[in-house]
# Entry
Amino acid sequence: MQDQDTIAAISTPPGTGAIAIVRISGPLSMQILEKIFSSSPESIKPINWESRSHEAIHGYIWDPANGELVDDVVAITYRGPVTYTGEDIVEINCHGSPLLTREILDLLLRLGARLSERGEFTKRAFLSGRMDLTQAEAVLDLIQARTTRQSRMAVNVLKGQLGQRIKEIRGTLMELLARLVAGIDFPEEVGELPLDDIAPIVDKAKADLERLRKTARSGRFLRDGLRLSIVGRPNAGKSSLLNQFLAFERAIVTEVPGTTRDSIEEPFDINGIPVILIDTAGVRITEDRVEKIGIERTGRAIDESDLVLLVCDLTEHWGPEEEEVLKLLNGQPYIEVWNKHDINESGNGTGRTDEDQVPDNRIDMTKISAKTGIGLDDLKNKIESFVIQDSKSMMTEAGGTLNQRQDELCLRAASALDDLKVSVDNGMPEDCLATDLKTAIHCLSEACGDEITEELITEVFSRFCIGK
Ligand SMILES: Nc1nc2c(ncn2[C@@H]2O[C@H](COP(=O)(O)OP(=O)(O)OP(=O)(O)O)[C@@H](O)[C@H]2O)c(=O)[nH]1
Ligand SMILES: [Mg+2]
# Structure
């Protein structure tokens, strides 16, 4: 890291604010600060920064070229290697004017720093070993989190536990590889590895990988949001449910069946899970041209959903309309939501003659009143259970969820372990077994960033903002 250049960037968002932060990282950080920082507003009185680290000092930024006073600031110095990037860092907390931050940044660039690329501070943290790739990716998730739950998940991954879990699985495979290779190279000294020893180790690693991979599904919903459409017969109370969720009159509600003609999307947060709520046109057999188009759109909304709320009316019976929705669902998971509980408290909430006919894709059932809000918390909990499912304990244990990149690599590692087992069963030579093991190890190394290509590094960090 010694031959790195020094980078600088404005780390706070563009626009006017109370304060803004301009950041420098690299070997010239302290030197540059010495040239522009003074404890006096009257003249440049350089401070010797050599002995100072992890200190906040109030002072003034001067332009050494013309001797003009630029701003009244607080400079914080961090001397490497125990810093975010592993290098010397200076953060200048200045007044939050875009003009001033730009001027201070220009001063730093004039004195030898280079404008940082997107995510370059975090990239340096990763390259200097201050964090692994799962932690670097968590930094991005943390910055981009829209719900508390997303942010909690990211901050837990940032602690490094998820990367640790992946490394533990890799560790057992590396140990196995070492024994296998030693048996090949020094059969007399260490003896060949008995084939019966391999299967239990591989099975355990595979089971651990599977458990870890279960978190990826929840992670996808928690990162990207759950598409949740509200579907059912006309007048069942779909738009009322949307409004009840949002706590404002977003959709038109009337007693006229067929009120909603087009799908309406609204972002929302259910128990900390980011959700896109979609209210749809009621499904029934109709000759009305506009309504027909609306129902086609309902079909499309269902296709694009992760979960559907099938809203039924407790004052009516399960009927052909609901059967029609089931056809549109085509196996998609749904929660049956019996509405208008306030006017039909004794309703049994099925209306079906035979409960055994419940399709497999019905994951749960509940009764609510979209008008009064009765049962809404229970419905939210059921939606949360769908998202978290059986990954809850693993999420706690692993301290987070795999993202898509990490999940794909864990899947590739698992399939290399499958190949290994087939090779063992077919009595393949040990060097073939070693190849499968190496593939699995390589995938896991890539997942936590220990073996990673330049392209992937660029790809991951280009998603960051400048200054992070
Ligand atoms: N009592 C009672 N009435 C409700 C409830 N939910 C909806 N309604 C009434 O049912 C009627 C239809 O409600 P909407 O929310 O427009 O129903 P919808 O499913 O969106 O209907 P379409 O858009 O026509 O498909 C309105 O008169 C609502 O006030 C409820 O929980 N209790
Ligand atoms: Mg409606």
